């Protein structure tokens, strides 16, 4: 029988089975092939095969290949943690204040959405508190980059039904920093969900809850929502730092134009198209800063990445300054049309 993983810990999973029953399942033989190194072998949204033995005990026997997965690096557990699988949309819930809008967090969620090859929707909640100019500018930038923007307020109800419309027919994973109102928003979407709101921050809650895993809900309209635990930061691993630009829509088309191509660190090389684009105002300086920070984080954890089957090339030192001004100018004029 087939089943859908709703939630679970390392050992016991809640599975919605094809006969409509919800069963608690352990994993047969305790292991899922290829998932031994993951923080949890199965993620909410996973499709599995289950069998029920004579004693009525249900067991997960196999995992159907995932279409995609959304996850983070669990720093405490020191392993990759898939939080959601087989998703169509990532919804990053943010707030303009209490807590303040954190574009760097959104950037990290965007990387994870790019990695899963699914669209990102930024849901700005608490709009009843007012949205400053700076945040509006930032949202406009995200929109330009191809990400969806939705303004709403769980408190006033503004934008909630429109948000539901964006979820129809999809499996959406909701992520957000603690306190942005993700639980309140989910309750506004579907009062029956009864998500607990106003929880203590992750910092204070530590030790109280041993494992927090994502949970999948099926709304009366059939929409699937995967709620993830509120986090303070999203740690990233396992991305080749030399290819991180591929996860930034505005950087990806520029790197082939760097004089040293893939070996360009996009920091101090003359002939780097990216640093020039920042100077020219084509790339937002804060997005560039965010790129550098994530890149340094990935490089600092090269050992982990190497374990995953690829290694990080050493930072290129010599040769970085070879490009000369005249050649740069010529190249720039030659490519001007492409840049516009
Ligand atoms: P979560 O940690 O993201 O799940 O956030 P909660 O849903 O627990 O909400 C955190 C706090 O923000 C609570 O005190 C909520 O009442 C408040 N809150 C949630 N949504 C809104 C909103 O749209 N406007 C305002 N002003 N406060 C909100
Ligand atoms: Zn470069």
Protein architecture, described:
- The protein has 340 residues and is of the alpha/beta class.
- The chain has three domains: 2-63, Beta Barrel (OB fold (Dihydrolipoamide Acetyltransferase, E2P)), CATH 2.40.50.140; 69-227, 3-Layer(aba) Sandwich (Rossmann fold); 241-339, no CATH class.
- It is 26% helix and 21% strand.
- It contains ten helices and 13 strands.
- A hairpin with a 4-residue loop joins strand 1 and strand 2 (13-17).
- The longest helix is centred in the C-terminal third of the chain and has 16 residues, at 285-300.
- The radius of gyration is 22 Å and the shape is globular.
- It binds guanosine-5'-diphosphate and zinc ion (ZN).
The CATH architecture designation of the largest domain is 3-Layer(aba) Sandwich
Cofactors, ions and other ligands in the entry: guanosine-5'-diphosphate, zinc ion
The fourth-level CATH homologous superfamily of the largest domain is P-loop containing nucleotide triphosphate hydrolases
* End-to-end gap: 55 Å
Radius of gyration: 22 Å
Low-confidence region ranges: 203-211, 309-340
Structural class: alpha/beta
The main sheet orders its strands as 10-9-8-11-13-12
């Amino acid at each position: 029988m087939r089943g859908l993983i709703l939630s679970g810990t390392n050992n016991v999973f809640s599975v919605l089975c094809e006969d409509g029953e919800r069963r608690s399942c352990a994993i047969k033989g305790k292991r899922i092939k290829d998932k031994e190194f993951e923080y949890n072998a199965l993620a909410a949204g996973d499709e599995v095969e289950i069998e029920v033995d004579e004693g009525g005990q249900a067991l997960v026997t196999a995992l159907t290949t995932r279409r995609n997965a959304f996850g983070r690096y669990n720093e405490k557990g020191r392993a990759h943690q898939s939080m959601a699988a087989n998703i169509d949309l990532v919804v990053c819930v943010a707030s303009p204040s209490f807590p303040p809008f954190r574009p760097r967090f959104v950037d990290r969620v965007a990387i994870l959405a790019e990695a899963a090859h699914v669209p990102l929707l930024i849901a700005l909640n608490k709009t009843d508190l007012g949205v400053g100019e700076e945040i509006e500018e930032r949202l406009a930038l995200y929109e330009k980059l191809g990400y969806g923007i939705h303004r709403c307020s769980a408190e006033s109800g503004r934008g909630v039904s429109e948000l539901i419309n964006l979820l129809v027919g999809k499996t959406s994973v909701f992520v957000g920093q603690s306190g942005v109102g993700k639980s309140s928003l989910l309750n506004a979407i579907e009062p029956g969900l009864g998500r607990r709101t106003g929880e203590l921050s992750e910092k204070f809650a530590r030790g109280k809850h041993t494992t927090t895993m994502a949970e999948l809900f099926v709304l009366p309209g059939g929409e699937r929502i995967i709620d993830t635990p509120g986090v303070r930061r999203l740690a990233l691993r396992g991305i080749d730092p030399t290819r991180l630009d591929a996860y930034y829509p505005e950087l990806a088309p520029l790197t082939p134009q760097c004089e040293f191509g893939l070996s360009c660190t996009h920091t101090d090389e003359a002939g780097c198209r990216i640093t020039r684009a920042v100077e020219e105002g084509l790339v937002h300086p804060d997005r560039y800063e965010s790129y550098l920070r994530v890149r340094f984080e990935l490089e600092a954890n090269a050992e982990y990445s190497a374990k995953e089957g690829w290694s990080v090339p050493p930072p290129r030192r010599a040769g970085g300054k070879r490009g000369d001004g005249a050649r740069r100018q010529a190249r720039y004029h030659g490519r001007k049309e492409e840049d516009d």
